[in-house]
């Protein structure tokens, strides 16, 4: 895969749900060939933001560019060739196996008359399943899969799509500890191949350990953006999440390790 370094640039993103302004003129970037973690409290609009960037939700957006190309003015099929969104929940079509769902990721790259062979499609599906750790249950009815298994199948579908930009909404959701680490390691590997990876995460230590860049959102705005060392400070964690934390350095690394205190921090200035 070509290693594009421009990445994602999304400007003036605004979204209102009823009387509540969720996102208020937000501007964010995610560099190519890197993992950017999107962090924020529950209700801060992380899922909404990913869907607006992917174009699956309409809002007030000035521009969303990937490597300089405007995504939101593209035809749906062209955009799907470049962007894949892995959401937290999904609805499996009745009677489909995990393998069938992963094969849907190939559709954006087919013309009206596809000359791809069944063997080529099968190989691409198999590769995506294996890389996402979903091969063992690929031929089961998707309705019988556990939450963690569904999450892996959904990630495999996105890999089959061969995107330049991978958007992930809580990719470790429903996964056990080993599978969480495998998923995060996979995201790092994809970024190493040149992909732009933008993932909403809940676990600050996962973000600190695996992300190259962190964007923190709350109250409709970007609160901080930069490296894990720059962003994940005791002061920011207290201000955004209302918890006290000790920020240490990981052994053999300058990446932060966050240890939380049990006592809440008093809310100031709200």
Automatic annotation (TrEMBL):
Keywords of the record: ATP-binding, Membrane, Nucleotide-binding, Transmembrane, Transmembrane helix
Transmembrane regions: 21-40
Domain (ABC transporter): residue spans on this chain: 8-244
Molecular function via GO: ATP binding
SUPFAM superfamilies: P-loop containing nucleoside triphosphate hydrolases (SSF52540)
SMART domains: AAA (SM00382)
Record flagged with keyword Flavoprotein: no
PANTHER family for this protein: ABC TRANSPORTER ATP-BINDING PROTEIN, HEMIN IMPORT ATP-BINDING PROTEIN HMUV
Protein name as catalogued: ATP-binding cassette domain-containing protein
């Amino acid at each position: 895969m070509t290693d594009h370094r421009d990445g994602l640039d999304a400007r003036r993103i605004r979204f209102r749900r009823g009387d509540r302004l969720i996102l208020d003129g937000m501007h964010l970037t995610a560099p190519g060939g890197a993992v950017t973690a999107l962090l924020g409290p529950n209700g801060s609009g992380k899922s909404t933001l990913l869907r607006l960037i992917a174009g699956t939700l309409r809002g007030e957006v000035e521009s969303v560019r990937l490597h300089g190309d405007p995504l939101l003015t593209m035809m749906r099929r062209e955009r799907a060739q470049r962007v894949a969104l892995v959401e937290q929940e999904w609805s499996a079509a009745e009677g489909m196996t995990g393998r069938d769902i992963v094969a849907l990721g190939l559709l954006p790259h087919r013309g009206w008359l596809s000359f791809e062979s069944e063997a080529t499609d099968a190989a691409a599906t198999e590769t995506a399943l294996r890389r996402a750790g979903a091969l063992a249950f690929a031929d089961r009815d998707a309705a019988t899969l556990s939450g963690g298994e569904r999450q892996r199948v959904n990630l495999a579908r996105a890999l089959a799509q061969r995107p330049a930009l991978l958007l992930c909404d809580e990719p470790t959701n429903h996964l056990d500890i080993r599978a969480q680490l495998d998923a995060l390691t996979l995201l790092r590997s994809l970024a190493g191949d040149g992909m732009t990876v933008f993932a909403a995460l809940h676990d600050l230590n996962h973000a600190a350990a695996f992300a190259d860049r962190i964007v923190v959102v709350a109250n409709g705005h970007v609160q901080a953006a930069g490296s894990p060392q720059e962003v994940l400070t005791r002061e920011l964690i207290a201000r955004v999440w209302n918890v006290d934390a000790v920020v240490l350095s990981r052994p053999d690394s300058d990446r932060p390790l966050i240890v939380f205190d049990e006592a809440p921090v008093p809310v100031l200035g709200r």
